[in-house]
Amino acid sequence: MKLLVIGGGGREHALAWKLSLSPRVHKVFVAPGNAGTALEPGLENISITAIPELIEFATKESIAITIVGPEIPLAAGIVDAFRAAGLKIFGPTRQAAQLETSKIFAKEFMQRHHIPTAAYARFTNPELAHAYIEQHPIPLVIKADGLAAGKGVVVAQSREEAHSAVSALLVEKHLGSAGQEIIIEEFLQGIEVSFIVMTDGNHILPLVTSQDHKRLNDGDLGPNTGGMGAYSPAPFVSPSLHAQIMRNIIDPVINGLKQDGIRYTGFLYAGLMITAGDQAKVLEFNCRLGDPETQPIMLRLKSDLLPLIEHAVNGTLDQADIEWDRRTALGVVMAAQGYPENPRKNDAIYGLQDLITEQENAGNFHIFHAGTSMGGKNGNEIVTAGGRVLCVTVLGDSVKMAHQAAYKLVENIRFDGAQVRHDIGHQGINYQRGTSEKRS
Fold first, then answer.
1. Does the reported pTM lie above 0.90?
2. Superfamily of domain 125-180, CATH level 4
3. Spatial CB neighbours of 55, under 8 Å, sequence gap ≥ 6
4. What is the DSSP string of 344-357?
5. How many helices (H) and strands (E) does the chain have?
6. In a 3-state reduction of DSSP, which class is residue 404?
């Protein structure tokens, strides 16, 4: 059987790698992929991104199922187009993907279906937005309505910063049409958790919990990014909290969409804030797997991924069985110089070849590529080609052990200007330390 994965980042490398391990899979094509997917056994990159050409390729190659990684093809209606062509594809339709593509759609949906989230107001008029800022306590969160590649959210710690964000979006049009309407919402205090499920529109299969690290620098400082690292499981999600999230958030989302005449199939990512008293509230929805959460999650997945995707596509997800490695998986992102504003490209990456050989033998780590390509004088060097370059992902018996092992591997990889956070997993390490001290 042949499969097609849409996308070229670390999430797609992890998905394609995991799918390629299935004994029933002959080849996984990745469109467009990266240097990691180019070198991975069982994977092949194709340089196609336009939806009509992807449909033509999938038809010609008899692709059994296509799996969509990033949000932009979903927003463009790739699922609708593939289904219209009679092709099997895993992901939400353009209408369903509005949960991610429009912050206002998501907020109004949650309000309508009584899903816990931060209080908010929506604006197109900058004067009214500025007046709102003066009337409400700081911090405030300003969000562009549309897709903005991770640049559409500002956590304003002062009124000046909030006013500046409003002006940048509504007056100066920094994000174009994505920021022509904004929401301003209350700032939620607590612990952030990523909660991801698969659904066929009727049945829901939760994946393991995870936590990512959005800020560029240690101590959760610096600008927001797409994610500088992640680990799974998030130890502070207790069984009772897990049940609360399913009962108050995930089930109402899927049922609410059905009530609104929308059948949602695909991965659904709920970015949550666990507030005081262990109450979960929704920060955002993504209509896909998270990146870099996917990398640790796929490393922990012991089950064959293909049957899970098949059940989800065929509407039989209630029949799926899933098994996880009990160990912690932790991924450290290595980012390019200048990321997130202006990442530099074409820096040669050293130290990968020896680790690629070692990872095949060890089986307890994998280096997933994101912003990489083949370059150099002879075209056979791995070079940087985007903001987040690699995600070094390791299994360990605790968050601390996985953390130590991941950073030991990171020391072997070099490229000019590499940016790395050194505290990935710090909340989990502190939580496990505190739990251990309570027991002793």
1. yes
2. ATP-grasp fold, A domain (3.30.1490.20)
3. 81, 82, 85, 87
4. ----B-BSHHHHHH
5. 16, 23
6. helix
